[in-house]
């Protein structure tokens, strides 16, 4: 809707204000949605929504793997110490 209305206004902000009032959001919210759509369409540089989702998933996976690695290190040290204690007895 913004793309259709924009040419008939003097500025982009005027178009944002008008369209935002019609759809019931703030002009700033609509501006951010428009920027995201432009990035996703390749009209503006930046990471697309799918790239951001993939990056978020990879960061989550990395965090989980680091946590699992710490647990395994702790368990390994615990069992190594238990083995040493058992040999000393």
UniProtKB/TrEMBL annotation:
Report keywords, A-Z: Coiled coil
Could you confirm whether the keyword Coiled coil appears in this record?
A: yes
Biological process per Gene Ontology, one example term = DNA transposition
Cross-referenced SUPFAM superfamilies, in alphabetical order?
A: Homeodomain-like
Q: Which GO terms describe its molecular function?
A: DNA binding; transposase activity
Ranges in coiled-coil conformation? 48-75
The UniProt entry's sequence similarity note says:
Belongs to the transposase 8 family.
Q: Would you tell me the protein name for this molecule? A: Transposase
Q: Which organism is it from?
A: Woeseia oceani
Native organism taxonomy: Bacteria, Pseudomonadati, Pseudomonadota, Gammaproteobacteria, Woeseiales
